[in-house]
Design goal:
The protein has 227 residues and is mostly helical. The protein has two domains: 63 residues, Orthogonal Bundle (Arc Repressor Mutant, subunit A); 140 residues, GntR ligand-binding domain-like (Four Helix Bundle (Hemerythrin (Met), subunit A), Up-down Bundle), CATH 1.20.120. It is built from nine helices and two strands. The chain has a two-stranded antiparallel sheet with strand order 1-2. Strand 1 and strand 2 form a beta hairpin. Helix 4 packs across helix 7 and helix 5 runs antiparallel to helix 6. The protein is elongated. It starts with 12 loop residues before the first helix and ends in an 8-residue tail after the last helix.
Length: 227
């Protein structure tokens, strides 16, 4: 039984359930075609059906589950190619965020980014998966906000939600957390120095590496005929 009593401050029960189920889908513990019954999930996680329904709706928006006639909600089959296409879009969006952040980010926001990056070093050195993954989301969101473009922030947020399970999963690859921190170092340096093109290139390179690591993770866990 998974403990759902201790939640992160801003995390709802639906958020947590969606994250846990998405982890199971991406890792292959929930196979394509597996049925996700609302009542069974509510019983398993000791929840009412409302947060379960909300969580399944979020998974559907990510393309990880689908509704089928007479079967209800089932785990969707997904292709590595589609996931890689989403990462290509994400790379360009985040690279643009980094470029604009290098141009527009305030001194206070730069100080906050630098402090967060410093804190992530300890998480990296201890390979604290959950801590690093949570801080990593805050790191990238700080750069989104630093772009000063609310339309870009909204678009980047939406794309990130769609590929969040794959971004989270790639941290399970050996050495990936340490490598991610080193990639962040180049991004932070460029933003702090106001080097727009260097920030763009560093962020794009980082996301393309995340893309490759995510592809390696997924293909290591699914037979080719499923993908």
């Amino acid at each position: 039984m998974t403990d759902t009593t201790t939640l992160k401050p801003a995390e709802t029960r639906a958020d947590r359930l969606a994250r846990e189920l998405s982890d199971e889908i991406v890792s292959g513990r929930l196979a394509p075609g597996a049925r996700l019954d609302e009542q069974s999930l509510a019983d398993r996680y000791r929840l009412s059906r409302t947060p379960v329904r909300e969580a399944l709706g979020r998974l559907a928006a990510m393309g990880l589950v689908e509704k089928r006639p007479h079967r209800g909600v089932v785990v969707a089959a997904f292709t590595v190619e589609r996931v890689m296409h989403m990462f290509e879009v994400m790379a360009e969006l985040e690279a643009l965020c980094a470029r604009l952040a290098a141009r527009r980010m305030s001194l206070g926001a730069k100080a906050a980014l630098q402090a967060l990056h410093h804190d992530m070093q300890g998480l990296s050195e201890t390979e604290n998966f959950d801590g690093y993954e949570s801080a990593n989301r805050a790191f990238h969101r700080t750069i989104y906000d630093g772009s000063g473009n609310p339309v870009l922030v909204e678009t980047a947020d939406e794309m990130r939600r769609r590929i969040a399970p794959f971004r989270r999963a790639q941290f399970q690859m050996a050495g990936r957390i340490a490598k991610s921190f080193r990639e962040h170092d180049a991004i932070v340096g460029a933003i702090l120095d106001g080097e727009e093109e260097a920030a763009y290139a560093a962020m794009r390179g980082h996301l393309m590496t995340v893309k490759d690591a995510s592809a390696a993770f997924v293909t290591s866990r699914f037979p080719l005929e499923v993908l």
